[in-house]
Amino acid sequence: MISELQFFMRKLHRVTGPVLYWNLLGMICISLMEGIGIYMLVPMLSLIGVFEMGSSSLHLPWVADLLNRIPENGRLLLVLLTFVVIVSGQAWLQRLQTIRNTRIQQQFVRTLRMETYRAIIMAQWSFFLQKRKSDFNHILTTELARVSQGTNILLQMAASLIFTGIQIGLAFWLSAKLTTLVLICGLALFIFLRKFVKQAKQIGDQTSEYSQSYYNGITEHFNGIKDIKSNMLEKSHISWFERICGQIERNVIQFSQLNSGTQLIHRVSAAVIIAAFIYLSLHVLAVPPASLLLIILIFSRLWPRFTSIQSNLEYMSSMLPAFRIVRQLQMETAKSREIGGNAVASDVINDQDLTAPGPREPLIFKESIECRRVNYRYEGSDTYSLYEANAVIPAKGMTAIVGKSGAGKSTMIDLIMGLVRPESGQILIDGVPLTEERLLAWRSTIGYVSQDPFLFHTSIRENLRLVDPDASEEQMWQALQFSSSATFVRKLPQGLDTLIGDRGIRLSGGERQRLVLARAMLRNPSVLVLDEATSALDSENEQHIHEALERLKGQVTIIVIAHRLSTIRTADRVIVLDEGIVIQQGGYQQLAADSVGTFSKLLNMQADVVGQ
Ligand code: ADP
Fold first, then answer.
1. Deepest of 189, 274, 491, 574, by most Cβ within 10 A of its Cβ?
2. Among 114-123, 168-177, 241-250, 554-563, whose mean pLDDT is lowest?
3. What is the mean pLDDT of the segment spanning 434-450?
4. CA–CA separation, 174 vs 11, rounded Å?
5. Residue 401's pLDDT band (boundaries 50, 70, 90)?
6. Sheet hosting strand 557-561, strand order edge to edge
7. How many CA atoms lie within 13 A of 340 on its CB side?
8. Given ligand 1 and candidates 126, 131, 374, 378, which is best to mutate, with the most ligand atoms within 8 Å of its CB?
9. Mean pLDDT rounded to a whole number for the chain
């Protein structure tokens, strides 16, 4: 746990640099001034005549000398003026320091946020396969906020410790014996209350657990809202939500009980100790009133510091799990970095490592993409999703990958795009293995249109500009034309500026897919990968996509994951997969003619379905 704190402290130091030391220096000044301001009460009170001020009680004979030289009525004024200057100066510095603290904290959190987000987004695809997306939301919002709070508490605690150290120094100077006594009492109480700090950490662990499942739950529920509504599952979801809200509430109350409990113990012990001191001083030790005042002064300055350190320790402990979770995620993402992954996760994530992959010089590719004896298993799975797969995809042709659901079509595509790496075997581009160094160059030649195309909730223009911010109006329309979407976009109320998505115009699945196809085309890809929508598109839409692909044939290498065989009649090549094995490949007509082969059976099956 301490290593986590060290890690973040080092990071904080790296992010803020010398400002951190200025901050500490500021704290020292403030605490000195605060101490002086308070201890000035003694000469003030003596001037007012509360008690006789001897040089012994002030420990500063030169101050007494100085004061004695000033005329009587000026003395009080001078002391009061100094008091006002010191206290106001301290307040002013305090304000500066609060602002600086906020700056440090915000700078740190911003860096941490950026670093975490970039590390996540730059991780390789296989990392996302094992993770729940809601966990990222949770970490980037709640846990990072807790780390921010924790850093603030840590800075406060550093200030508290410095204040306390200085006050202890001042108190020692006034009375070493009394201060030692107060310190012993404080230490004893701290040891007695140690277990509460541990408990605070356990409560913090639970806080993380509950907020994680809260995030996960709500994300899942809203993703599956249609199922919930249509199957009338609202009640069970509401009761889950009620339960988790209850747990969160209890967790927060539990911490408050713990924290206020130790505060109570501190306050009560303060009262008991001071009462005992006064009793002993007056009746047993016969201490003069000036010294007694000193005792009360020292005690009343030091004790609240101990109380706040105890409280800060508890808060800090409860935040530690958040530090651990953020650190863990950073380490995991460092291991899963797209390039140079498997690297040892270092403390310092190099900014350059995390720069987003910009457009690279595309990989020139002339002949073929080949899978050679490729084996692939998903993490944690025993069975191969692709086994000893050999397949050839010729350049500039249209290749269809077919097979039943779960046959391994998407896995093969992910391997070809380099999103996942084969366990053994190779992907060859023009006969040269696709290595890590060539991966990003390879991917910048690919345009991908997924089964469930993703468009942002913004205008069509903005969506297209995502791939090419400098795309001209003409280029956009050309891409739209290519993807058979120009006609329907023209009919939209604001054309290219029409908002699409949740809060905008609702597009059909086919229209969305064609827009994403246009977006992919803007990149001028030499390979186009299209995962055909499983949900049946209406025949007009299907026809549009078909036309678009026909238009591209001969210019671009097209790979289609075909769920309906009707769209791939014109494919140059068909690869048939079954349970992770390539069982047939060849020209469409050739495979269709092979009556014992799986492909002709698949064709017959679909014909039956259509015929029914
Ligand atoms: P297809 O695209 O042909 O429907 P996939 O390539 O998606 O098939 O899946 C091939 C096999 O790999 C299936 O048995 C599926 O259960 C398994 N699989 C797919 N994705 C994952 C995953 N993320 N984790 C574990 N197994 C997976």
1. 574
2. 168-177
3. 86
4. 40
5. very high
6. 446-449, 527-531, 557-561, 398-402, 573-578, 581-586
7. 12
8. 378
9. 83
- Our answer on whether the CB atom of 381 is closer than 6 Å to any ligand 1 atom is yes
pLDDT at 368 over 70: yes
- 327's tokens: 């650190």
Between residues 57 and 101, which one has the greater pLDDT? 101
Separation of alpha carbons 609 and 163, rounded Å: 81
Domains of the chain: 2-338 (1.20.1560.10), 361-445+525-612 (3.40.50.300), 453-524 (3.40.50.300)
* 3-class state of residue 388 by DSSP: strand
Angstrom CA distances, 293 to 51, 59, 93, 540, stand at: 10, 15, 29, 94
Question: In this structure, what token pair is assigned to residue 589?
Answer: 């007509």
Q: Which atom of ligand 1 is nearest to the CA of 383?
A: 14
What is the DSSP-derived secondary structure letter of residue 141? Answer: I
The pLDDT of residue 377: 92
248-252-253 Cα angle (round to 5): 115
Type of residue numbered 356: A
Q: How far apart are alpha carbons 16 and 26 in whole angstroms?
A: 15
CA distances from 465 to 109, 458, 468, 473, 508 (A): 30, 11, 5, 10, 21
Q: For residue 177, give the H/E element and its range.
A: helix 176-192
Does residue 388 surpass a pLDDT of 80?
yes
pLDDT at 340: 54
Q: Tokens for 409? A: 């079509």
**561 contacts 532 by C-beta, under 8 angstroms:** yes
Cα-flanking dihedrals φ and ψ of residue 478, to 5°? -65, -45
Write phi, then psi, for 425 (nearest 5 degrees).
90, 180
> What percentage of residues in the chain have a pLDDT greater than 90?
26
Degrees to nearest 5, angle at CA 552 with 520 and 565: 95
Contact 378, 434 (CB under 8 A): no
Burial class (CB in 10 A: 0-12, 13-18, 19+), 479: buried
The highest-confidence range among 1-10, 259-268, 304-313, 590-599, by mean pLDDT, is: 259-268
Specify the DSSP class assigned to residue 369.
Answer: E
pLDDT at 537: 60
Residue 370 φ/ψ, nearest 5 degrees:
-135, 135
Q: Predicted confidence band at 204 (pLDDT cuts at 50, 70, 90)? A: very high
pLDDT of residue 145: 92
Q: What angle do CA 133, 134, 135 make, to 5 degrees?
A: 90
Cβ–ligand 1 distance for 403 under 6 Å, the answer yes
Task: Check pocket membership of 129 for ligand 1, CB cut-off 6 A.
Answer: yes
**Ligand 1 centre and the CA of 574: distance in Å?**
20
> How many whole angstroms separate alpha carbon 38 and alpha carbon 29?
14
Closest Cα to residue 122, out of 330, 417, 376? 330
Distance CA 283, CA 578 (A): 96
Contact present, 505 and 575 (Cβ < 8 Å): no
Q: How far is the CA of 428 from the centre of ligand 1 (A)?
A: 23
Q: Which amino acid is at 591?
A: L
Task: Give the distance (Å) from ligand 1 centre to CA of residue 463.
Answer: 29
